[in-house]
Specification:
Number of helices: 5
Shape: globular
Strand content: 25-35%
Radius of gyration: 22 Å
CATH topology of the largest domain: Pseudouridine synthase
Largest sheet: 10 strands, mixed
CATH superfamily of the largest domain: Pseudouridine synthase
Distance between the termini: 43 Å
CATH class of the largest domain: Alpha Beta
Order of helices and strands: EHHEEEEEHEEHEEEEEEHEEEE
Structural class: alpha+beta
Helix content: 10-25%
Length: 302
């Protein structure tokens, strides 16, 4: 059995609007997925602290106080942990992420089994400039130190940055090259309340698509994204009638599949951050990064 992680300290500062609540009422509002009985057990075990002392259920909160939950160690799900450095200098760091590895902690499951935790073992101050979905592989750009983050973020968000993904979509795409400009916004989705999807009143979005290879019942594509909306490539290709092969969430029209209970991080689809071009934040030199796609996303000559 895998070893548990080191646990985590969830810390928040009480806001003025939350002042006057009891600790128990506040925790129930902030964390509705945990039952009242669970929070009482945690308080009895000394795992909930108010201003660094054990909290009681009827303690009244005041603005500016710090409330902490000391989550005990837990065993995280097994995920691929193999990464590689693609580029490194004092101003930027590019790392290859495998499919299945979360970029950041989240969901109450992942803490040390994340790309961020793995990178920080070698670069303790590193911070990612963007994130990839758990099932998406490829290039993730990091600022190696706290002092380099602002300049690198400016370069990454600059007009000269080019981001190209490799994707395998369903069906035979007729045109060799085309654009998708379907707006993306939030739509109702029962498992989460809402979800990003194609929406006529959503934010402007643009993807440039080029066919790499046509296969039986599938097409290999390069997709350059000119905007960075959540799940943009998955939504856009589904909107165009060609959902990613194996996508458990998005169907034709770029909306959730009927009756789906899948979450955005659920695996199955094939998507890879293949190329990233940007101007170096200090020298202005053009940096061109590439990451070898996994076997099913490579040109095979079919």
């Amino acid at each position: 059995m895998a070893a548990p992680n080191g646990g985590y300290r969830y810390l928040e500062q009480i806001r003025a609007a939350e002042s006057g609540r009891t600790v128990q009422a506040h925790l129930a509002l902030r964390h509705p997925l945990a039952s009242e009985a669970e929070w009482l057990e945690r308080m009895a075990a000394g795992q909930v602290l108010l201003e660094d002392r054990p909290a009681r259920r009827d303690d009244r909160l005041q603005a500016g106080q710090q409330l902490a939950w000391l989550r005990p160690p837990w065993v995280e799900p097994e995920v691929p942990l193999g990464t590689a450095i693609l580029y490194q200098d004092p101003d930027l760091l590019a790392v290859a992420k495998p499919s299945g590895l979360p970029t950041l902690p989240g969901g109450g499951e992942f803490l040390e089994h994340t790309l961020l935790a793995l990178v920080r073992r070698r670069f303790p101050e590193a911070s990612p400039m963007h994130r990839l979905g758990r099932a998406t592989s490829g290039i993730v750009l990091f600022a190696p130190t706290a002092s380099t983050g602002k300049a690198l973020q400016g370069a990454f968000q600059g007009p000269g940055t080019r981001k190209v993904y490799r994707a395998l979509c369903s069906g035979d795409v007729e045109a060799d090259a085309f654009e998708i400009a379907a707006p993306i916004g939030e739509v109702p989705y029962a498992p989460l309340g809402s979800l990003h999807a194609a929406h006529p009143e959503g934010r402007p979005s643009l993807s440039l698509v080029n066919v790499v290879e046509r296969r039986p019942e599938a097409t290999l594509l390069d997709v350059e994204i000119r905007t960075g909306r959540p799940h943009q490539i998955r939504i856009h290709l589904a909107w165009a009638g060609h959902p990613l092969v194996g996508d458990p969430l998005y169907g034709p029209g770029g909306i959730p599949l009927p009756g789906s209970t899948a979450l955005p991080g659920d695996p199955g689809y094939l998507l890879h951050a293949h190329r990233l071009d940007l101007n170096h934040p200090r020298t202005g030199e053009r940096i061109k990064l590439t990451c070898q796609p996994p076997p099913r996303l490579r040109f095979s000559g079919l």
